[in-house]
Design goal:
Blueprint: E1 4-8, H1 12-21, E2 27-32, E3 45-48, H2 52-58, E4 61-64, H3 71-79, H4 87-93, H5 96-105, E5 113-116, H6 119-129, E6 132-136, E7 146-149, E8 164-168, E9 172-182, E10 188-190, E11 194-199, E12 202-208, H7 214-230, E13 235-244, E14 249-255, H8 265-268, H9 273-281, E15 295-301, H10 307-314, E16 319-323, E17 334-341, H11 345-360, H12 364-367
Parallel strand pairs: 1-2, 1-4, 2-3
Antiparallel strand pairs: 5-8, 6-7, 6-8, 9-10, 9-11, 9-13, 11-12, 12-15, 13-14, 15-17, 16-17
Helix pairs in contact: 1-9
Length: 374
């Protein structure tokens, strides 16, 4: 009898999870509040609105494709011993203060931070940390809900919605991430370290392998493995790091799921992050994470579907397009991405630049404006 995997959340991560893993003979059920969510279109069973109970009852295992899912659904799935990974990671990720305190309390290096509960404490944070990034404790992602205070004159743009996480502004050399997968018996496989480039706070493109010192790459992998063990995580986990100019490796945040910076694995790894997540949560043997060729992705942010653009992108050697089929185009919204492979990192960077030019031209700010302009 086919295993049935329920997915809470119907976005593009669920879409790719299903499209990559149907070949395993797994049946997929998807729940989302939005009846037009992309993953619903490829699911074996669609559940919308309050129908999450039916999805859980029909599933052998329940997983999630993003953290902000119905807490009652999470509770029910866990009470039936069907939720993988467990609810701890969801609980941590729904509150940035909680996540950062957990990391610090468990001995992981993170940027210096303080918790701010009023105007006076905002001023103290600037005195203590110097340049500060204030973050709303809920809903801050892809640059949203983050306010950069480079001098006291910038404090006026920070909303008085407390509590806030006040984090030291880190002098970054590079931003990288580690995507890894852990089975229920504790086996861990780690993909090549990924180098990430952001525009106005949202990921624009990624490259694997990251062009960093091998010792730093090994350290990042070791930290990520230790975190997945501390969390007793099952499935894919992604850890985002700041590499400082002095060589420190600091955790920025983690994601208890498949992740945008791991999309390169669709063409660049022996088995993608999406299939390996499904394998892990269903207790199937994990697949090889070996890097096949230098690989990268370019996110298609806020751009409408345009067949001519797609044709030009596909004419670049080593490219493949994933279009997510979202019903509405919005600035900064992830509408699709381009996978790119090459024989060496230099050639890969050239192809990435060519794809960026085709997708955005000189007008990227129109599609990816700062959050406060959207």
């Amino acid at each position: 009898m086919n295993k049935v995997l329920g997915i809470l959340g119907g976005g593009q991560l669920g879409l790719m999870m299903i499209m990559e893993s149907k070949k395993l003979g797994v049946k997929f059920l998807v729940h989302d509040e939005d009846p037009e969510a992309p993953a619903l279109g490829v699911a074996d069973g669609k559940f919308v609105g309050d129908s999450w109970r039916a999805l859980i009852n029909k599933s052998d295992v329940v997983t999630f494709e993003f953290e902000h899912v119905n807490p009652n659904a999470v509770s029910m799935a866990e009470s039936l011993d069907r939720l993988r990974p467990g609810s701890l990671t969801i609980w941590l990720k729904q509150d940035k203060i909680r996540e950062k305190a957990f990391l610090k309390d468990h001995g992981f290096l993170v940027p210096r931070f303080v918790i701010v509960n009023g105007l006076e404490e905002m001023n103290k944070a600037v005195n203590q940390l110097g340049r500060v990034v204030f973050k709303e404790y809920q809903g801050a992602y892809d640059g949203k809900g983050q306010y950069y205070v480079m001098s006291r004159n910038d404090l006026g743009k920070v909303p008085r919605r407390f509590p806030l996480l006040a984090e030291e502004f880190v002098d970054i050399h590079k931003e990288v991430s580690v995507v890894l997968v852990r089975s229920s018996n504790g086996d861990v496989l780690t993909y090549s370290v990924t180098e990430n480039y952001h525009y106005n706070g949202v990921l624009l493109y990624s490259i694997a392998p990251a062009e960093i010192d091998e010792e730093i790459a090994s350290r990042a992998k070791e930290i990520a493995v230790r975190l997945t063990e501390v969390l007793n995580h099952v499935g894919v986990l992604t850890v985002e790091f700041f590499i400082t100019k002095s060589g420190e490796v600091l955790i920025n945040e983690f994601a208890p799921r498949v992740h945008n910076s791991g999309h390169w694995t669709l063409m660049g790894a022996a088995v993608s992050q999406f299939e390996n997540h499904v394998r892990a949560v269903l207790d199937l043997p994990l697949g090889s994470v070996e890097l096949q060729r230098p690989s990268g992705i370019v996110n298609m942010l806020g751009v409408p579907y345009n067949e001519e653009v797609i044709r030009r992108v596909l004419a670049v050697p080593g490219t493949s397009v994933w279009w997510y089929g979202k019903a509405r185009v919005k600035p900064r919204r992830k509408m699709g991405h381009v996978n790119i492979v090459a024989n060496n990192v230099g050639e890969l960077r050239k192809r990435i630049n060519e794809v960026l030019s085709i997708v955005y031209g000189n007008d990227i700010g129109r599609y990816v404006p700062p959050w406060n302009l959207t």
